[in-house]
Amino acid sequence: MNGTITLVVLVFGVVIYLYLSQRGRLSDLLRRLEMAEREREKAIDHLDSLSRSAARELDLVHRQLRRRAFDLHDLFTTSGEIRSISSLHEFLSSFMLTLIGHMRCTSAALFLPVDQETSVFTLQYEKGLHLGNRNRFSFTRDSELYRRLSSGSGVVPLSGVEPDPAWAEETRPLRDVGLVAAVPLVGREKLLGAAALGPRLDGEPYRDRDWELLSILLSQVSVTLENALLFERLNHSYQGTIQALVATIDAKDPSTVGHTQRTSRLATKVAEKMGLEGERLEMFTLGTLLHDIGKIGLPESILRRSVTTPINPGQLRLIQQHPMRGAEILGKIPFLGPAVDLARHHHERYDGLGYPDGLKGEGISLEARILAVADSYEAMTAPRKYKERRSPAKAVKEIRECAGTQFDPTVVEVLVQVLDEEKDWELPADSDPADSTPRVLSERRGSAAFN
């Protein structure tokens, strides 16, 4: 019994000793566990904070990406729409609206060269600016603005402190109307112009993404402008060719100098009033200038005969061949293709008795029907060696008498309206009584008036 008690006391003593000897280490261990728990909680809080911050950043990036995607979609949609505009003026006017909308700015301006030969860039399109004298807003190839725009550095700031007094003075007119930055409009080989912007609507500074959008916009304009400049050069070449051909016609018969231009102007007025527009109208005007090119092959003895010299049958056959010869000449020049119809068919008659193909009514193109009336009016009222000159009133009366036979009645009435409205072709209020008897232009096939 005593031995058992002794053993219990001994074991208890050992436990107490162990407890007392390890208490410090246990306390340290507990403290460490508590510290570890607090660190874990801090780590969890920090991770939670980072997670919330990352979520906010991701949301912001998501919204920015969505906005950028919408911007780019809208931008390319708009770019496609404005590229489809055939008129350069309409294209650039539409572009200015697009520029204001996408850049979210208060104002914008577009500087372009006056023409391909000069070195002056002027303000040609603007939105939101309050301008006085537009001539103040220009720069040349010798200017500092041109140098900076051509340097390849991109955006040229116009606002802010500028240590160079000459630069400050040069750009002062632009700053005075609120423009804060200029961006070059660059082609493949040279500076084509510049766009200048006013402040953002929200008052915030422009960001990199804004300049990226503007770069995309201006790239569309650059392509269109370069194409327009190329077209202009080709058009000048075409016009030179046309003028040379017209001069060749005039050289054959000096008495008809100016007839082609006057006929073209009158016919174009009638065509506009009858609804021709755009490229169709341009091609029509081109054709009217060249409709008599076939006369190049006629002998001068026919072209310069006097009013008292009658036409013999052989000469009449030659005269009636000039529409076919004209069509053959023009048909060999690709860009003059649209003029072939007018050259061949301007002597066709509404009743089918004309030449060379005997076309009738609406089987004759509207353009050829218009030209036939305008050409005949101009020929009758202009001095010619081989026919008497009619007064405007007599010419109109004569043409009206031939409406439905030689001429399309609708075209005749539109011609009369144009003559009434145009001062250059103003009709006398009262016609000469001697003009009351109309002369039929051609009673039968093969004797149409030569004009």
Describe it for me?
Helix 6 (259-273) packs across helix 11. This protein folds into 3 domains: 38-84; 88-230, 2-Layer Sandwich (Beta-Lactamase), CATH 3.30.450.40; 253-436, Orthogonal Bundle (Hypothetical protein af1432). The N and C termini lie far apart (157 Å). It has helices spanning 2-83, 88-103, 144-150, 165-176, 208-252, 259-273, 278-289, 300-303, 313-331, 340-345, 366-381, 392-401, 409-421; strands at 108-113, 120-127, 138-140, 156-157, 181-186, 191-197. It has 451 residues and is an alpha+beta fold. It is built from 13 helices and 6 strands.
Features:
Beta-Lactamase, Hypothetical protein af1432, 3 domains, disordered C terminus
Short structural summary:
The protein has 13 helices and six strands. The protein is α+β, with helices and mostly antiparallel strands and 451 residues long. It has three domains: 38-84; 88-230, Beta-Lactamase (2-Layer Sandwich), CATH 3.30.450; 253-436, Hypothetical protein af1432.
Write the layout of secondary structure elements.
Blueprint: H1 2-83, H2 88-103, E1 108-113, E2 120-127, E3 138-140, H3 144-150, E4 156-157, H4 165-176, E5 181-186, E6 191-197, H5 208-252, H6 259-273, H7 278-289, H8 300-303, H9 313-331, H10 340-345, H11 366-381, H12 392-401, H13 409-421
Antiparallel strand pairs: 1-2, 1-6, 2-3, 4-5, 5-6
Q: H/E series, N to C?
A: HHEEEHEHEEHHHHHHHHH
Per CATH, what is the topology of the largest domain?
Answer: Hypothetical protein af1432
> Could you report the average pLDDT, rounded to the nearest whole number?
78
Q: Indicate the radius of gyration in whole angstroms.
A: 42 Å
Distance between the termini: 157 Å
Per CATH, which architecture of the largest domain? Orthogonal Bundle
The biggest beta sheet reads: 6 strands, antiparallel
Oligomer: single chain
* Number of alpha- plus pi-helical segments: 13
Q: Please state the overall shape, judged from the principal axes of the Cα atoms.
A: elongated
Weakly predicted, low-confidence segments: 426-450
Q: Write out the strand line-up for the largest beta sheet, numbering strands in chain order.
A: 3-2-1-6-5-4
Helix content: 55-70%
Q: Could you state the CATH homologous superfamily of the largest domain?
A: Hypothetical protein af1432
Instruction: Please give the domain count.
Output: 3
CATH class descriptor of the largest domain: Mainly Alpha
Q: Which structural class do the helices and strands define?
A: alpha+beta
Give the tally of β-strands: 6
Per DSSP, what share of the residues sits in E-state strands of 2 or more residues? 5-15%
